[in-house]
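User: Reviewer 2 asked us to show a designed sequence for the structure in our supplementary figure. I'm pasting the C-alpha cells here. Could you produce the per-position amino acids so we can include them in the response letter?
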C-alpha cells in the first residue's frame, strides 16, 4: 500500500504552493517549488552518484540547516534510510553507530568533518559529502553537497510502500549503548496526522528549528510544517540571542524547546517578551518542566499557546499532549504530561505486567500506530520492549481519573532508600523552586545504612549563595522527610547534558558507583 507515505504530502504541497516562500536558512531563501526541486535532485544523486537506495543507510552529522531537511525529505521519498547522528557522540560511540548501522555514506559539515574522518576507516565509511562549505579550512571530504545537487536530476521517484524504512535513529544512550530505532513510512505519516490533529498546523505557521534536527522532537517541524505549506527557518544550534534575532526577523510563530532551553532563553540579558511577539505556539518536552519555570514562562508570555509533548524516539516523539487549555486551567494539571494523542492508548503496569489502579504509580506502557518497526539487529531488546503487546517506556508514572498522565521519574532513576521509593523528579521539582537554584539533578548514591541515599547536585543561580542546611529546610517544607537529600554537591559549571539537552545522570552517578552494582540501573 502507498496511502501512508510522505511522498504525496511533500510533492502535493510543492505543486499547490510552488511560488510561495517556504524556507529561510541564513541567506538562502527558497519557495516550496525550489525546495522540492532540490530534494528530487538529492534523491536522484544519492542513487546515481553514491549508490544509495532502498534500505541502504546514509548518515548525517551536521548542525541545523536546509541541507539536513532536504536529506530527510529525500529519505522520505524512498532514496535511502537516513541515520541522523547525535552531535555530542564521542569518537568511539560514533564509530560504534556507523559500524552497527552499516552506513557507507556520511554527510558532514565543517564542524564535524574531522571527527568523522578520525573514525572513517574503522567505521567503513566509503564516501564523505561536505555540507555547507569549508570556509577556507582544510576539511577532509570526497565531494560537496552542492556538487551532488548539480549531478542529480529532478525526477519524481516511484512512491515508497508503507512498510519501507526511512529513518534509523539511534537512542541517546543515557543508560547504555545506543540502540538503532527503525522507523517506516507508516509510522511517520501516522505521526504527522497526530501532530496535525493536536497542534492544528497550517500554511500560516513559521517554524523555527532550534532543537537539534537529529532528535525525534524535531520530526513535527521536519514533517508537519512543510506538508502543510508552512515556512521553515533555522538556527544552526541553540543560542538564546540567535533565537531572539531570528524570531523577530522571520516572524516565527512556532517552535519546540526543552526546559533547559526555555530557562536559558528567559534568563538571557537580551530577552524581552515583545521580542517574541510573533510566537503563537511553544511546545516543550524531552524532560520534565520545573513548575516554577513553567509559571514564569506563562506569566511573561500570557497569550502564548503552550503545549507539552511527551514521547520517545521509538514512537516518533509523540504519545501524549498537554494542551493550551490544560495549561490555562493550571493547578495540578501543570505537573501532567497530558492525555494520549489520537490513536494512542496507555496503561500503567507493575513489574509483573499487571495493571495498577488509577492514581497508583507503575511503568508507563503504550500502544500506538506510530511506533518503530523494532531495534536494529536487536530482536531480544525489541521483544522485551514490546512484551505482552505493549511498548514499555521505562518511565514511571500514573493516570488520574480523567486520563491525564503524570510522570514521576525514569524507572532507572528511581532511588530506593530504606525500602522507600523516591522519584528524583519530585525532589528536583521542589529544589528548582528555590530562588537560588539554577540547575539541579537528584541521584541515588551508595549508603551502608539506607542502601541508596538521596543526593542532590546543585548549580547555584548566578552569585547566589545557598547552603546545604538551607536547601534541606526548604525541602522539608515541601516533600516527605525520607525524600529530602541526605547530601548535596555544589557545582559552578553547568550539569552535563546529552545532545538532546537532557541531564546525563549516568555521568553524575558514575564516580559513586565505580566498582559497585546498582540493581535499579
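Assistant: Here is a per-position design you can include in the supplement:
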Amino acid at each position: 500500500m502507498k496511502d501512508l507515505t510522505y511522498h504525496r504530502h511533500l510533492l502535493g504541497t510543492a505543486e499547490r504552493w510552488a511560488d510561495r516562500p517556504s524556507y529561510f536558512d541564513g541567506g538562502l531563501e527558497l519557495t516550496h517549488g525550489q525546495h522540492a526541486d532540490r530534494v528530487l535532485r538529492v534523491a536522484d544523486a544519492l542513487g546515481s552518484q553514491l549508490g544509495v537506495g532502498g534500505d541502504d543507510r546514509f548518515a548525517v552529522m551536521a548542525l541545523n540547516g536546509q541541507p539536513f531537511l532536504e536529506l530527510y525529505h529525500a529519505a522520505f521519498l524512498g532514496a535511502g534510510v537516513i541515520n541522523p547522528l547525535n552531535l555530542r557522540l564521542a569518537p568511539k560511540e560514533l564509530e560504534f553507530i556507523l559500524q552497527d548501522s552499516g552506513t557507507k555514506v556520511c554527510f558532514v559539515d565543517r564542524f564535524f568533518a574531522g571527527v568523522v574522518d578520525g573514525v572513517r576507516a574503522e567505521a567503513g565509511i566509503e564516501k564523505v559529502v561536505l555540507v555547507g562549505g569549508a570556509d577556507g579550512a582544510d576539511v577532509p571530504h570526497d565531494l560537496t553537497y552542492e556538487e551532488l545537487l548539480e549531478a542529480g536530476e529532478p525526477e519524481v521517484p516511484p512512491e515508497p510502500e508503507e512498510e519501507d524504512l526511512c529513518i534509523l535513529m539511534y537512542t541517546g544512550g543515557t543508560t547504555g549503548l545506543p540502540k538503532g530505532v527503525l522507523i517506516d513510512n507508516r509510522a511517520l505519516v501516522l505521526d504527522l496526522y497526530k501532530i496535525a490533529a493536536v497542534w492544528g498546523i497550517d500554511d500560516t505557521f513559521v517554524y523555527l528549528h532550534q532543537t537539534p534536527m537529529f532528535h525525534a522532537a524535531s520530526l513535527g517541524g521536519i514533517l508537519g510544517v512543510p506538508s502543510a505549506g508552512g515556512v521553515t527557518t533555522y538556527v544552526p544550534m541553540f543560542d538564546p540571542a540567535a533565537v531572539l534575532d531570528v524570531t523577530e526577523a522571520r516572524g516565527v510563530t512556532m517552535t519546540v524547546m526543552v526546559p533547559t532551553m526555555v530557562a536559558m532563553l528567559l534568563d538571557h540579558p537580551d530577552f524581552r517578551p515583545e521580542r517574541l511577539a510573533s510566537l503563537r505556539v511553544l511546545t516543550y518536552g524531552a524532560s520534565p518542566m520545573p513548575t516554577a519555570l513553567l509559571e514564569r514562562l506563562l506569566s511573561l508570555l500570557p497569550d502564548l499557546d503552550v503545549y507539552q509533548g511527551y514521547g520517545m524516539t521509538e514512537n516518533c516523539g509523540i504519545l501524549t499532549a498537554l494542551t493550551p487549555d490544560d495549561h490555562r486551567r493550571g493547578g495540578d494539571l501543570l505537573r501532567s504530561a497530558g492525555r494520549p494523542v489520537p490513536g494512542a492508548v496507555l496503561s500503567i503496569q507493575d513489574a509483573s505486567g499487571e495493571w495498577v489502579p488509577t492514581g497508583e504509580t507503575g511503568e508507563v506502557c503504550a500502544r500506538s500506530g506510530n511506533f518503530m518497526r523494532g531495534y536494529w539487529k536487536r530482536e531480544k531488546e525489541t521483544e522485551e520492549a514490546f512484551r505482552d503487546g505493549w511498548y514499555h517506556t521505562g518511565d514511571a508514572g500514573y493516570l488520574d481519573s480523567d486520563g491525564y498522565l503524570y510522570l514521576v521519574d525514569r524507572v532507572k532513576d528511581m532511588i530506593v532508600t530504606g525500602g522507600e521509593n523516591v522519584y528524583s523528579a519530585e525532589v528536583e521539582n521542589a529544589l528548582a523552586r528555590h530562588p537560588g537554584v539554577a540547575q539541579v539533578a537528584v541521584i541515588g548514591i551508595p549508603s551502608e545504612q539506607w542502601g541508596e541515599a538521596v543526593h542532590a547536585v546543585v548549580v547555584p543561580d548566578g552569585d547566589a549563595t545557598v547552603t546545604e542546611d538551607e536547601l534541606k529546610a526548604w525541602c522539608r517544607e515541601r516533600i516527605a522527610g525520607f525524600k529530602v537529600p541526605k547530601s548535596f554537591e555544589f557545582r559552578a559549571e553547568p550539569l552535563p547534558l546529552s545532545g538532546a539537552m537532557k541531564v546525563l545522570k549516568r555521568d553524575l552517578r558514575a564516580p559513586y558507583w565505580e566498582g559497585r552494582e546498582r540493581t535499579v540501573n
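For the response letter, you might also mention the following. The longest strand covers residues 437-447. The mean pLDDT is 90.
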